[in-house]
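Exam review. A common question shows you a sequence with its structure tokens and asks you to describe the fold in words. Practice with the pair below. Do the first one on your own.
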Amino acid sequence: MAQRTIAPLARRSTRNLHAPLQRSGILRGFERGYSAIASDLERRACAKGDANSSVCKDVSQKTHVHTFSQNLSRNVQTTTCPEMATYFPNISVLNRSPRNAHWPKIVGDRLSAGYIASHSLNSSSIYMKRSFATDSGLPSHQEIGMPSLSPTMSEGNVAKWKKKEGDKVSAGDVLCEIETDKAIVDMESMEDGYLAKIIHGDGAKEIKVGELIAIMVEDEDAIAKFKDYTPSGQGTANEKASSKETTPAPPPPKEDTPSPVATPKTEKSAASPQSEDRIFASPIARKLAEDHKVPISSIKGTGPNGRIVKADIEDYLASVSKDTPPSAPPTKELDYTDIPLSQIRKVTASRLLLSKQTIPHYYLTVDTCVDKLTELRNRLNALQEASSGKRISVNDFVIKAAALALRKVPQCNSSWTNEYIRQYHNINISVAVQTDKGLFVPVVKDADKKGLSAIGEDVKVLAQKAKENTLKPADYEGGTFTVSNLGGPFGIKQFCAIINPPQSAILAVGSAEKRVIPGALPDQFDVSSLMSVTLSCDHRVIDGAIGAEYLRAFKGYIEDPLTMLL
């Protein structure tokens, strides 16, 4: 009802308006936009079972539309035009002179689909923008942009589309898989409709956040109108690549070549050499010299009257070949393969470079005796095997001890900002996991409150997800402290790790090895298993004494692991 009533009224109301406004084209925009708004509001109200929606009813009033047109033509105040206040909160913009060149643009911007969707329809979708019909004949549709699926994501890749063009989509259906800087995440649809056009297909790379990747429509009949659709200022990934390849290289700058200067003719007597400067040589000697590019003037002839003969040229060539050193063999070019950079590799490189350049690192190393820990671990694993449980690793003890040490020294569970130091109350331990695709750092949440078995189970599940590239944002966000262990898997004795911003510390764990240590008596020596750990600290947040205090607490838990149970 609203669509059949408002559109004719809006068209008739434009006849009474000033000619300058009609020439500006903005009234045609009011007509189309006002009709589309009423139609969309009525459709939504009917879908909800509310045929008497107050908003739809208010828009569909004939007197309101007529008053709207008259008030616009007179440039009246807000209080006399309540309909405009619904869609234009700052109605004072209409009171400007129509002669102002910016007036149509300002009103047009207010009437844009994005503004109406955000202020009138309360759309909650972050990456979907509603667009109304345009002069190009396109029906109303939804533009789906590249979402931001992690705090550090600035661009992403389309790994695989789960829906094809023309497929029906329901709210909650997975549209495609997006490769972020940390994992591959499913992107779900926020509304029902049909997938009309895929702008970036499978494998599209380096798509900026917010850039258009697909078009959705509400009616199946509208799909065909987007078959050849290309967004303005944005081609498909293949078109971009082809344009880069086919773009001709700029022509090289022209060099200024001097124009030839005519040489004045001189008399023949002046140009010809003097008779005493003439070089006498046999024809075969001259031919041999020209073939080997030998300056014949530098050869002394041995023939009659100093004539240069063939033997003179051959002797000269033989002497030159003896004096010339043998040429070096040609160097063999290096054989190599260029490996494309994955998204996780790019982000890891940029963040670690930023960490090293902006965070003042310092390092503290301590040796911890793990004899008691090894003994306790063997006893607990025996119990786990008897009850069909999973074995506990040394890394599980390290994570638990690191978390409990943070509870004792909370200054190390902090991050730096330019205005303050944020100290976290949750102790979430990030665990570095190396995969074929790169380095992932999933998070064990509330590690200080979990038992060794729970920590071990979380680490195994997260490590498997990292290797399968199926981590979700909740699996790698929220870490407050990082543990990197290269000792157990690789046998690295000791190393210094780079802090993972915005955290302020990372613990590098080396391998345990047998060492001879002083015994209880002066001449007595014992053999113990010692493990080296190095704490990398941000000096802006953690002073040296605080870092040493943390390592002392960590060492206490490792050397007496029963205290972790208290």
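Now try the second one, then compare your answer with the model answer below.
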Amino acid sequence: MDSGDSHLFTRVTWFLFAVMVILAMVPVSEATVHHHKWKLSYQNWSPDCMQTTIISINGQYPGPTIRAREGDTLVVELENQMPTENVVIHWHGIRQIGTPWSDGTASMSQCAILAGETYIYRYVVDRPGTYFYHGHYGLQRSAGLYGSLIVDSAKTEPFVYDGELSIILDDWWHTSTYQQAVGLSSNPFVWVGEPQSLLIEGRGKYNCSADSSKTCNATSSQCSPYILSVKPGKTYRLRIASVASLSALNFLIQGHKMTVVQADGHYVEPVEVENLDVYSGESYSVLIKADQDPTNNYWAAVNVRGRKPNTTTGLAILNYIPNLSTKLPTSPPPLSPLWNDYAYSKSLAKEFVALTGHEEPPPMKPTRQLILLNTQNKINGFVKWAINNISLVPPPTPYLAAMKYKIHGAYDTTPPPDAYNPRDYNITIPPANPNAVEGNGVYLFELNSVVDVILQNANTLNANNSEIHPWHLHGHDFWILGYGEGAFDPQKDPNKYNLVNPPLRNTVALFPYGWTALRFKADNPGVWAFHCHLEAHFFMGMGVMFAEGIERVGRLPRSAMGCGLALNKMMHY
């Protein structure tokens, strides 16, 4: 496409988007307020047949599915009945426009909810899509605190289907999250290792014969394969999300192709795939047609990508009605691409572009650029993750309250560095000086400014090793402008950006030894986390904080302020 065609395409895209916005302003129906009352407690559960302690919601695992329509208001009254730990819940993918205190991030948007306390989340779901919620305190997502959040469109969607299915993918350990946290925080460092099982909608199958304990029961109904029931000849929308704590996952259905039509709540040009990489924090809608031999059932499978797998395939059953759901497929489970075939993963990621006429195109130029170097480091002998050599340690006082009410001494007011010097750092080898520092500074943006973020990957502390990092931005969506190999070149690489139809997402993969370029509008007043969505990595400091328009944030609820230096402010509220 030459420059003239590109400009014409951009003008047409803007016109179609303007029409879409006008149509979206036409009232369709009255918004509804949905009330949910949740009690969080410990339960003994056997997700993969091995009994362990999980965090449940109203005695359920996974947690209850929330369903609403765009424009509706959700009110979730959450009571923490866990006697030994605090909790918050993040509503992943919901931008929290006007309600940043409901984002559900401890020490960032609110104080943690103490044992015995109740906190009320109230917010509007402004955009249709496949979302989810999960614990955002310590490693609670790894303890099973998650569930689906589905927002239906108030308008006709650009694809049709006969029925709908939904699953959440997860990786699972038998070691408790408390033991994991101690290992991550120890010197010497103690790594939990690869997961024991992969779960589909909270169900997997561990080989009980490999364990002599009496707490593994292969016949438990809690670990029987999840059933996806379909009628022959019908087309189904399958909603897929990943809450994995470590693993990049690949999902596929035996004998069936999938057509990807939506990613992170945004429409994409349809892409037909035989398998789909789903990184932690991502969500998709795919269309599948039940067009195979109706006398058989078929495996739905999930495998590990990006790490040398030491975990068996996670399985569910695509059940063709009227076959019995207990009828197992006769063929072996399907195979995913090789775990280290990064070329395949990058090629697949680049296939997703915005659906013409349905998504806002990006601004042509940024106001500010950040280049964030992702490194594994040490601080006083402890293994950490750092961004531009700073490992994030959130303060006791939530950023939102501290910045809104100008609470002195609550956090480091020195802004973190906007970039690193690539001439001083070789991303292809372990760091010559692995030492980093702890910090809790904030990147401050002008309201409505346009920000480019370049995520730069590097070698870990171990030679010949660089990991996939799925990065998630709270409070915003971003355009994925491009991916590249090696060190980012600020002079040359922006010329490669896709400024015509980049996809809008809230989570993106950073591939080994490469870079990923994003652009977003800082148009949502509040303080927002931007972090690696792998539980251990964020726990060890792999994140940064963004803030804009703090003066526009409304009065904070008292319940969000009862900790740290905000406590004194609340006493005079």
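Model answer, second protein: The chain has a mean pLDDT of 94. The first strand starts at residue 33 and ends at 45. Full marks require stating both points clearly.
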